[in-house]
Amino acid sequence: MEEPLGPDRELAAWADGVLARIDAQQGIDEELLAALGRGPSLREETLARMAEAVRAAALGFGPAGCATAAGVPERLLRNWQDGNPAFAAAMSGARALARSHAPEGSDAARPPTPAALLVLLQAIRSGAQHASAAALAGLPRAALYRLRKERPKVDALVLAARRARSRRTERRGGSAYEHRYRLVRLDDAPAHHQGGSRERQI
Questions:
Q1: pLDDT per residue over 116-143, tens digit each?
Q2: pLDDT in tens, 175-197
Q3: DSSP per residue over 88-110, as a string?
Q4: How far apart are CA 151 and CA 201, in angstroms?
Q5: N or C: which end of the chain has fewer CB atoms below 10 A?
Q6: For the chain, give me the number of helices (H) and strands (E)?
Q7: CA distances from 19 to 2, 13, 23 (A)
Q8: How far, in Å, CA of 66 to CA of 20, rounded?
Q9: Do 56 and 136 form a contact (C-beta atoms < 8 A)?
């Protein structure tokens, strides 16, 4: 891919900076845990991702979009709902909340939201093609094309997500759910796990 020039380079630098700040925000929990002298807990991380899925459901995302927002595979999200009635009820309640606040005339196109843009970028960075990523974010493909054409910053963010995808292919990282090996505590996992404190590499 050619290097952007002039104003395009400035826009690309801005978009790269936005993605870097998103990454920094997502890593803040690890920094706070380190400050407390603690390591990552599978229970705490799972609950945090469950909360992100519930939030996405309340914002009107479908199952795949909720999984993307939570940073987990859709199959894992289904397993959580099947094995945790409280989480399943929370997801159901969040979807009901979204429906209760749906605008009149549900067929009308909804304006894109920051949450939808974030899901779009996360999906692209994870390797999804633009059409699939747009569907996860609840955006018709034509709407994404129009948005990129009318909003240069959105287009710059999409291109930055594509660049980040190639870098991620070279060096895998992220959370316990993204193929990174690290030690996490399993003493208090939420899915009916019982027993003493122990650690596992995942």
A1: 999 999 999 989 999 999 999 999 999 9
A2: 555 544 344 555 555 554 444 44
A3: HHHHHHHHHHHHHTPPSSTTSPP
A4: 43
A5: N
A6: 10, 2
A7: 20, 10, 6
A8: 22
A9: no
